[in-house]
Amino acid sequence: MTSAKNQFKPVTHCIFDMDGLLIDSEKIYRVAFSAVIARYGRVYTNEAKMKVIGKHPLDSLRTLIDLLKIKGATPEKLAEEIKELMKVWIKDAKFKPGAKKLIRHLAAHKIPMAIATSAWVEMVDILRACHRKTFSLFHHIVVSDTDPEVARSKPAPDIFFVCASRFPKNPPPERVSKSGFNPKI
């Protein structure tokens, strides 16, 4: 019988998604998206949310405009309206239960950590300011919204490869993993 210790390789690096995994921000995004889309006489449904979650923000908004048949809006205009609400509300976002404990544990064991996120850079900056101590434990943060090296947004793996490459001793691509991640994309 093989022991569990022999079955698993030691963790050498850890890359986290931010929204919904580390930070309990999905409800805030849903409320902001719903409020802005309602201004155009449309409803932000769960079906619509599932089509855009995790994608680059402007890609998400293009999809929503087409899917919900939103008239009189551009992705940039919707983004501006949503960001205005988010800048106020995101300050209230907390870490998910257990997230800080895990981050502190990994930091105590000298496991380099990073964040790979599709969030708007403005939201990342606000969260970093509100949770300075915890965010200081991350080696780096890759934000697909503004990073020119991230060619394709999620679900493509580009953001994770870029994030992995920025560690001083970067792990090989075959060691980069994420729940639901498919390296053949």
Descriptive notes:
Helix content is 44%, strand content 6%. By secondary structure, it is mostly helical. Strands 1-2-3 form a three-stranded parallel beta sheet, with helices on both faces. It is built from nine helices and three strands, in the order αβαααααβααβα. It has two domains: 4-24 and 95-175, HAD superfamily/HAD-like (Rossmann fold); 26-92, Orthogonal Bundle (DNA polymerase, domain 1).
Could you list some keywords that capture this structure?
HAD_sf, HAD_2, Rossmann fold, mainly alpha, 9 helices, PGP-like_dom2, phosphatase activity, 2 domains, DNA polymerase, domain 1, single chain, 6% strand, 3-stranded parallel beta sheet, 185 residues
Quickly describe the structure.
InterPro entries: HAD-like_sf (IPR036412), HAD_2 (IPR041492), HAD_sf (IPR023214), PGP-like_dom2 (IPR023198). By secondary structure, the chain is mainly α. The chain contains nine helices and three strands, in the order αβαααααβααβα.
